[in-house]
Amino acid sequence: MDAYDLITRNASEVVTEDEVRALADDPDGKRAYVGYEPSGVLHIGHMLTANKLIDLQDAGFEVVVLLADVHAYLNGKGTFEEIRETAERMKEQFIAYGLDESQTEFVLGSEFQLDESYVLDLHALELETTLSRAERAMAEIKSGESVTVAQAVYPIMQALDIVYLDVDLAIGGMEQRKVHMLARDTLPSINEDAPTCMHTPLIADLATGIGKMSSSKGVTISMEDTTEDIEAKVNDAFCPPTADPEPTDDGEARENPVLQIFEYHVFPRFERVVVERPDKYGGNLEYDDYESLEADLESGELHPLDAKGALSGYLDELIAPGREKIDA
Ligand code: NAL
After folding, report:
1. Digit-coded pLDDT (tens) for 190-225
2. Are the CB atoms for 69 and 84 separated by under 8 Å?
3. Ligand 1 in contact with 75 (CB < 6 A)?
4. Which residues participate in L-tyrosine binding (predicted)?
5. Of 53, 132, 147, 185, which residue is most buried, by most CB within 10 angstroms?
6. What is the ipTM of this complex?
């Protein structure tokens, strides 16, 4: 795979393709980052952007993980002390998950976001940003019902962080895209470049295939799950024999989360996927790429229950090292 294909594989959106091509042509010394609000334990959403960071490390990028303690505080995720403790735990879990410690810089937001020059630049950006724009940028990130002033400051700080961390490529899930667009539009007003961004897909709710998987509601998979938890959740998952399920009777779009997890979590991390089956059911199936697994599920060659059995095993393997860090 060439550098551009590796850097952009499984991305939902690249802003802009030309800018990412320029980075891919000379990745040496280039910096990419993801920021995470420390809250709870690592879950499958964190793992999806982490997969992208691993791709970027393989392509030669330096990777910065911002443990966004001030952002989590502004978003009502707890006391500063609690958030700091969670940040330390998340860092260990990211390394256990497979981020190369020697190629990854972990930064706490509070290490630089309280400096005088940062705060003054923040106020300069606040002057350039309407409240309604900030509110729209937060629509898919904020917790709770109302938007607080703290949550309006949040996306402006996120934009400024891209400057202060000196990164060439900002990565986030699709829920971060409006913050990144705000950054592209407003940073030039303080004489900074519009940042290059790339967004990873969101996985549908495991049980229903409707909407997106979230740690605050519905079913998700996290590093706290035991092998048995994973088996139970995956067994109960929505998995019709198609990658393109019909909408619900109410017209809500649906995805196949089992296939999504194979595509975005399993194939990027394993060279070959083996679905074990007894000989009387045709014996094992082996796949070198996601597309052939999807085709077999659609044709009926691969039964959803067998696909789920394999998925549980691979997810368990991905999660096991991080789970040990929690138990330790
Ligand atoms: C991500 C978050 C917070 C601050 C950031 C600063 C720079 C780049 C990315 C950042 C957290 C993210 C979340 N908004 O929803 O978890």
Report:
1. 999 999 999 999 999 999 999 888 777 778 899 999
2. yes
3. no
4. 33, 154, 158, 161, 176
5. 53
6. 0.95
